[in-house]
Amino acid sequence: MGLITGLLTLPIAPVRGTIWLAERLEEKAYEEMTDESGLHQALLELEAARERGELGEEEVAEAEDALIDRFMAIRGYSEEEEHGGF
């Protein structure tokens, strides 16, 4: 960017900064939304709680179903992204 262009576009610098920040937030949200490692860890913790006797079979089954639903949603969203949908 040249000196003249920089001076002429200086008044919209806060807008460009806001747009840049919004783009970084969107990227981070997408990364967190499609991260499967947290789900794997939650399943491991759930299994450990079952083995320690902290949770009953019904509670574990409900929690597993919720985690599996979330996992399937992530996988579906990832496949949608690969095929051009959003």
Structure description:
The chain has two domains: 1-33; 36-86. It contains four helices and no strands. It has helices at residues 3-8, 13-33, 37-52, 57-82. The model has no long low-confidence stretch (mean pLDDT 85).
Descriptive labels:
86 residues, elongated, mainly alpha
Secondary structure blueprint with pairings:
Blueprint: H1 3-8, H2 13-33, H3 37-52, H4 57-82
Structural class: mainly alpha
Instruction: Tell me how many strands there are.
Output: 0
Globally, the shape reads elongated
Helix content: over 70%
What's the short version?
With 86 residues, the protein is mostly helical. The chain contains four helices and no strands. The longest helix is centred in the last third of the chain and has 26 residues.
